[in-house]
Structures are given as C-alpha cells and as structure tokens.
Amino acid sequence: MTDSSRIHVLVMLFFVIVVQILALAVTPAISASDSRVFQDPTSTSNPFIYMILILAFTALLLLAIKMNKSWIISGFIQLSIALSIYYLVVAFLPPLLALLPTAAVLLFIRYYPEWYVVDIFGIAVCAGISSLFGVSMTTLPTLMLLIILAVYDAISVYKTKHMVSLAEGVIKMKAPLLFVVPKSRNYSFRKDQSLLTHETGGSQPQAATPLAKGKRGAYFLGLGDAIIPTILVISANTSLPAGGLFGVNIPAIGAMLGTYLGFLALMTTSRDRPQAGLPFLNSGVILGFLAGCAIAGVRPF
Fold it and tell me: Quick one: which of 234, 9, 213, 201 has its CA closest to 128?
C-alpha cells in the first residue's frame, strides 16, 4: 500500500469513527422520540424481517438495472434518502417542520452532488440510521443480524456477484450511497466521467472494499460499511448497563474498537477484485463487543 493509499484509508476510517460518535450523540434524542423500526426490540425475528426487506429491495433494483429503468432506481433511492433524513430530523423538530430540512437536503443532493456534499450527507444519514436500528433491537437480535449480513455479503460478492452488479449500477448513477475520497484536490464527483464507463474496480457502495482500482479519480466507501457495525455499538450502549467513558459503556467501546480493527484488516486484502467488507467489519465489531462484555462482567443476553 502506497503512502497515498494509507492516507485515504485513514480518511475512510475517520468517517467511520465520526459516524459512530455522532450516532451515540443523537441516540438520546431518537430514543426520546419513540421512533422504532421494530415494535419488539427483543424479538429474534427482527433480523429475518430485515433480511427479507433487503432481498426484496435488492431484487427490485437489479431488475430495474437489467431493464435499464434508471428512474425506478432513482425513485427508490430518493425515497430511502428522504425517509432516512426525516427520521433523523424529526427527533429534534416537530413532524411538519421536519419536512423543510428534509426537502432542502434532497434538493441539494439532487442538484449539487459534489463529493463533500455527499460525504457530509453520508455521515449524518449513517449516524441516524445506525441509531434508529440500534435502539430498535437488543444485542441478541443485533448479533444475529450482523452474522446473517456477513454471510449474505460474502455470498453476494464472491458467489452470485449480484452485489457487484448492483454496486456498479449505483456508482454510475452517482447516487449518494457512498463516501467519496478524492485522489486529487481538483477532483469533482459531479463531473467524473470515468464513473459512466464500464470499467470495474474493487469498490462497492455497500459492504465491499473501499479502494477502487483503475482510472477513477476517487476512492469509495459504502454507507453500509459504516452503518451495520454501528448498529451493534448503539444497541450495546442502550440495552446493557450504563457506565464506562463519557456515557458510553465498556461493551460499546469494545465494539467501536473492534470495528476499527476489522476495517484495518479489510484494508490488507487484495485489491485485484471486489472484497466483501462485512465479514471483516462484523467479525471485528462482534469480537470487540464480546471482549468488552467480558471486561465489564456483563452478560450480553
């Protein structure tokens, strides 16, 4: 890995760290708003409901890509973005008033998707989604979800490869579903024509190795790589006994440190082909969480 690549890896790691810290910061407001994804946070059926939704959503997007119906993909992405922003903002503002910043962010993303706009948006949305799912599940269903997603990610990248096809389609659309780290100061995500080619690289917008190969002017990190491990961080901090450092308990701190180690382990993999990120990230966050539980003398379930 070159010095330049190391810098970009550290920037991406910084994004993950900021997402987790911000998610912890907004969790009290989201908890107070009573917004929940699942009615029963302790139910072990929650991970399976989540997976059914992911599979249905993925199948629809792949079908739209195959039929060259980009407006369908764009519509679903815009709807997902709107809901993500709204659920974050409504924790701090009345429901009707929350529609205004939601609409403003959507317009900004739609008409000026420059890399720094996409990155700021990504940090906020990742923190909001992570917090919302984290308070909606206790640690046992969360652990089940992370294990299922790690297996699914490996299969979808290495075996069926449908995640690779989906990722390339989303990147070409310049959808704000990833972090963008430019290789040079004059890089423009809006004007990057290389994203419109059929060149394949080792990057995906979700659950894949962040480093892209080839002539692309930036490196990419999927929002899912920041969201999924952070769900366990929030779940641990809200469903297990309080304490620790700055209001963050030891299991959650262990989960955070495990995420970073898993991310660094992912960066040691080959760049010759797309890599599934969640097996590394989820393994790291789970092991860190269990280590934190052992240190704190807490039974996670």
Answer: 234
